[in-house]
């Protein structure tokens, strides 16, 4: 069986690349860590891959704003490749700093196929501090997002960020994201109810933790599903009945299955 190829993008300050590699390999993909300069020089191209992963970390030290410098570098060096990648029906996934990069590059929300315009941002947590703990998430089962298919319950995964507040200045943009079911996951309490801090760790509008584009193939989120792949990743794994696999693995299994059935088979 052919394995989908995943490009895990590297840049200065990225530090969650091996976590992403592990998750995708567990899901059955062939994974390569590729530096942004390697793609910019055309030593490698995105045409070789079916999935592009923007991993977490602190790209370029979060200078100016989290993800902004890497987003600018991609805008002037690789944006045409990325847009072609999307047009070819392929998948893009961004986590934490990767989500910040995608938003500031303009890949999300991607209204009407516009992947160049920044309409939202991720900014400093309302708490004024770095939030590093596990949170509950509720999945929008009406979303077209490929990555969350079959996840019909709420999740428990870690967050690890200082600038995770999803913010939208224009109400029309928020209304459209909601009406399009592009809000894929939201912060909630342990009963699945939307609540404020500490359940919403950053003050995100409408408790938004992750959004997709209109196709459901381009998706970003602040929490880290790659940190809950094995059951031993769970902070209470010795204290109760838990499933054999971490709930974060499903995001990666969905991506690999989709790529195998819908991209490699073409």
Question: Can you describe what's shown?
Answer:
This protein is an alpha/beta fold and 266 residues long. The chain has 7 helices and 11 strands. Strands 2-1-3-4-11-10-9-6-7 form a 9-stranded mixed sheet, sandwiched between helices. α3 (68-77) packs across α5. It is globular and about 45 Å long.
Quick summary of this structure?
By secondary structure, the chain is an alpha/beta fold. It has seven helices and eleven strands.
Secondary structure blueprint with pairings:
Elements: E1 5-10, H1 17-26, E2 30-35, H2 36-40, E3 51-54, H3 68-77, H4 79-87, E4 91-95, H5 97-105, E5 121-123, E6 131-139, E7 155-161, E8 165-167, H6 171-179, E9 183-188, E10 208-212, E11 218-221, H7 249-263
Parallel strand pairs: 1-2, 1-3, 3-4, 4-11
Antiparallel strand pairs: 5-8, 6-7, 6-9, 9-10, 10-11
Helix pairs in contact: 3-5
